[in-house]
Fold this sequence. Notes:
The protein is an alpha/beta fold. Helices cover 37% and strands 17% of the residues. Helix 1 crosses helix 2, helix 1 runs parallel beside helix 9 and helix 7 runs antiparallel to helix 11.
Amino acid sequence: METNxxxxxxxxxxxxxxxxxxxxxxxxxxxxxxxxxxGKVDDEESVRAIRRALDLGVTFFDTADAYGTGHSERxxxxxxxxxxxxxxxxxxxxxxxxxxxxxxxxxDDSVEHVREALTASLARLGTDYVDLYQLHISDAxxxxxxxxRDVCEELVGEGLIRAYAWSTDDPARAAVFAEGAHCAxxxxxxxxxxxxxxxxxLCEREGLASINRSPLAMGLLAGRRQDRLEAGDxxxxxxxxxxxxxxxxxxxxxxxxxxxxxxxVLTSDGRTLAQGALGWIWARSPRxxxxxxxxxVAQAEQNAGAIAKGPLTAAQLAxxxxxxxx
Length: 326
């Protein structure tokens, strides 16, 4: 059984795993038609899944203003309703978009945009504060990051946010935010195939929570082979930063072979493949909080079911390293 975790220095108590709300945003794209969502969604099923997760003890939900160009925030806000005070809501800013055409329009890392974006997110979420506000531009300059960190400190003082973080895979950038008193976390990629020892070391050193996106390797560790992807799914036309998938071919055979190599370890002790992958993350550090995505009640139940199974053992982690030859 995995117990609740603390969101870094904030002292905020959260469930040991959160739910990532990218997929429930539905379809959206860049100006050239590159899909940026996970395909079509049923909003009513999304609402049911969020409420089921709440019933199963999940208290942390991570979204972004850009997911579905605002749609994910709207669905999450509607699903939480009167239970808003029972959960910890994280969202992000930095990307700009046209909600009417569901199209991304670029990025804005200006100081002025922070308040504009937060005001819009609060309206869509139907709340008057955000628990964790995250910079969504992973490669923003460190100097500008310092200025944005200072704005976040002002927002904490005004009661509009409780804490903040940077969504980046660069420990040096994360360290810039960590200089702020109310920085509580860093969001970064972490899964069985994409370890992040330097980032985990930073989180330990600075007292930050490690919020883990792509904990199931964009679905490769979810138990399905991902060989039939609809046109509106980002994995059907994967951008350069998305590993494990080929243009129009679905999952990369090499990545599937790696899944098969560790399957028996991850599915030991009655776990599903996804539950084993989440257990690996918990075993890597007591600061980790994986945020698997979901689009159905069944996925919500499987992900939340990992909590009862808890982390893998040190011996299982070592065996996975041996099987992956690292």
